[in-house]
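Hey,
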Amino acid sequence: MDYDVIVVGGGHAGIEASLASARMGKKTLLITMLVEQIGAASCNPAVGGLAKGHLVRELDAIGGEMGLCTDYAGIQFRILNASKGAAVQGSRAQIDMDKYRTYMRKVCHNTPNLEVYQDEVTALLVKNENEVYGVKTKLTEQFTAKKVILTTGTFMRGLVHIGENKYEAGRAWELPSTTLSSQLKELGLRVGRLKTGTPSRIDANSIDFSVMDMHGGDVNPAPFSFRTDKSKFSPTQYPCYITYTNLKTHETISSNFYRAPLFTGQIEGLGPRYCPSIEDKVNRFSERDRHQLFLEPQTEMCTEYYINGLSTSLPIDVQKEMIHSIKGLENAKIIRYGYAIEYDYVDPTELKHTLETKKVKNLYHAGQINATTGYEEAASQGLMAGINAALAIDEKEPFILRRDEAYLGVLIDDLVTKGTNEPYRMFTSRAEYRLLLREENADLRLSQYGHEFGLIDDDTMAKVENKRKVLADAIEFMANEWVTSKKETLELLESIGEEKINDKVLLVDLIGRNSIDIAKLDKLVPSLSSLDDYLKEQIIIEAKYYRYIQKQQKQIEKMKKMLKTTIPNEFSYKGLPGLSNEVIEKLEKHRPPTLFNASLISGITPAALDIIHLNLNLLSKTLKNENGH
């Protein structure tokens, strides 16, 4: 059978890729190992977090499904870093893993243009040596397509480790994909090996919660999706619990290092640096006498708890002893043991910014096959791959987000230009323009793209434009309104507990004080009091960042101007101080006509672009001086 797009894998990347493609009018086939596991949360029962929350909001703003599903299946909502600035805050939700999975499966089954099929893809159909035109499955079916998107997760040559035991699996007790990565190597793609892991799950009835600290959700929870009605959002929330490892726990772990696959050489792949296993933490931070653990409910039934912070591949007898040494878990019954899993990935520098492979036409990669961690990073890539595959079929311009436009742009640019040899995780620190790329303005930044692609409807877009106008009008008014130190003003400031002003100040700077809240805004700017609290909060945030945003926008304009700089074909990169031999070799080979084209070459960093730009300016001045003489 013939399709426009085939998506291989029903995880978070595969879902978003297939939904985007189908919703853009392309006949799409989603092939997955087990239909029941579409949208399965393989590891922790949560969505979002620091920087990851930004990705989900951006995904939602463009028209992805993850935010809506999280609002439906969420059982606890929190804003992380709430005491800090909005730019580094992150939304996080505990989810009912069962509800999340069934919701996503239902959406996939009921989306026009999208078909779901259960089978294992064993090979790509390739013509002219480097052009994919479909897939072959284990049941010997052949499906042809104009584009194929691989979202294989941890399934390519997946190998599960529990102590000395190991067995082939894509996820615990699920069959792996054993042939695809070999073919990718044959096609000339660089394939490597990575590792990730997960902790044990505990029977709730065997946990002593009374000796743990309860950790609840926000009193006024905020939904993930901009399309969720905030006025009606009132989810039932369930608590998490905090406990700690101790010296006895650490002694149990360290005395069994000789049996840990991580240290015996049994595991070859490199694991995630920022989410290490408990044995790795005890080894690396031997001076610590405890590590914090979060017990998180996996469903709203709260029958099974996930031990966040205790990922491990230690033998099961060690896992039992380790868990029983922890306060509140002395009598814990283990339902599922923790394990590590190794899997194949493809070096992401093999990709274009569209997520199509450079060496193989019509083949796109998204998710953990690109060496990323997390549901959020995977879903974001899936959306971008699905959109770009659909656009390519229509011979339209590709959808590539800049680093100043979105965390999505940072994520993909980091992967395809810098690459990674360890599982990549998004952080706010990776975004140079994070003051602009806040969670709450993702709709203002990106919804126009989703609307253009048909992923955001007219009503939603109208609400975004209304929000944009309200905020713009409010900021423009405040940026041109002076507040003087007259008696009435000083009395008003004193009455709301604000410091007095000694000279005239712009209203936007007054509202930008850290101490300003909605109640004070109503007093200081009565003309805005009729707006809903959500918009008032956005106005306060915009005012707080007003001066910083002006500076960053100037930097962005400067960067845009710089990227338009042409590079003479005879320009020599050799000998330029600050450029590595690898960078020089790539530039000499590709001969980019502009700095923008240079920025799209894998491994060419912003620092390298600055060096080239500086030397181009020096060359230009030298030529002018010579011509002048």
